[in-house]
Amino acid sequence: MSPTDTTASDxxxxxxxxxxxxxxxxAKRKIFPALAALHQRGFLHRATPVVGxxxxxxxxxxxxxPLDAAxxxxxxxxxxxxxxxxxxxxxxxxxxxxxxxAFVDAVDALAHERGAGGARAVYFALPADAFExxxxxxxxxxxxxxxxxxxxxxEKPFGHxxxxxxxxxxxxxxxxxxxxxxxxxxxxGKELVRNLLVMRFANPLFGSVWDRHCIDxxxxxxxxxxxxEGRAGYYERAGAVRDMLQNHLLQVLALAAMEPPATLDAEAxxxxxxxxxxxxxxxxxxxxxxxxxxxxxxxxxxxxGYRQERGVDPASSTETFVxxxxxxxxPRWDGVPFFLRTGKRMGRRLAEANIVFRPLSGGPFAGATTxxxxxxxxxxxxxxxxxxxxxxxxVPGEDLxxxxxxxxxCHHCVYGLNTAEAYEILLHEFLCGDxxxxxxxxxxxxxxxxxxxxxxxxxxxxxxxYSAGTSGPAAAEALxxxxxxxxxxxxxxx
Length: 494
Ligand code: BG6
Description:
This protein is an alpha/beta fold. The chain is built from 14 helices and 18 strands. 34% of the residues lie in helices and 19% in strands.
């Protein structure tokens, strides 16, 4: 990761990009739009073709139809899309050894035609159980040429628990070394998540108070209003712990809690992040609250309960909400709890980290009960990306009245609305070979080790235990305890 700006150039060397699972939801909604945006901004090398790999023969027009539907009306945008379309090929492959040779020959022919050389960037937008068999087939078929780089990007979830993740990793590393493996976590591509590093370590104002002496506790909330969105098959097996806690929540936690990395080098940053997860203390009784939503109302519309969603077992015991009190075994964080929560079908879409400072222990305002609130730094990941700081001021007038106000940095007010999306940033880093924003194996391993204890300790609970459209089960509201409560940042823009 470099502190300098990336400028539109041929910075990423030419290669063939192969997107497996090209007709799937993820490819349609995220990967092709991100590639199109990179193409438009000049970040794809002019010799780099994009291959959408599909099971059944699919035309390029079919593959890119969702982009047409999403594009704005401008002529410039239509031209940009036409230029991208010219660089996209659709190739069908039935994932059998019988058609492997023909598939690899077609990729090589395209590379030759475009002058892309032997480098290959493969994106697996596939179910996890297809990762390794597909990778093994590609090796067998000779897709990767000696002396040219190859990179493979794997969608989450990387495994279902520690044992399956280890087995998957062992199988993949039979064919590829760690530097060529990119495990994507799209939260690491979100601007305000990336900003945590800059905020903490480029500002003495924040860096100097970022420890147990000043901070009372930290909260991270990733709340969604959506339900399973047609992904019940996957979600029934995953649940909120595996879907969000093991990855997105722990990545945000790691960035919020890590020690200063020695340099901005990918490995230094990832070393510091892994260290946090390795130091997570095993959860104790009462540290975890899970929930599942029942019917309710979201945004003024009645919505069904989880068990009534299409594809969900009517007696499902899958959790759609989890809140955890986490502790990090490090002198910096001694006695500082980290509260993490995530849920589907909550009242409001909100992703943010709140750093809550200790009350005053001395001085003329110590113990003041009226008006003096805790200082809070809120990093709003979405929506209305920004950072706000709450502090106390004197209300105008003769009396000494105190009130808590918020000072606001609105990200899009400063940088505009159309900044790059998470997938765009991550795909760019993948193509350029910068792994900083991808989960290294030891992070994934440590996160499963901690999460497995949570899933193993789960006890049967009478679900549903929260209504859609609320902030989760009552027990989660009480989790912070000791006079603490969950915070929703003062988002002056919403
Ligand atoms: C994905 C989860 O990783 O993240 C989804 O699998 C979830 O269940 C999504 O909806 C949330 O991402 P975002 O960017 O919408 O907050």
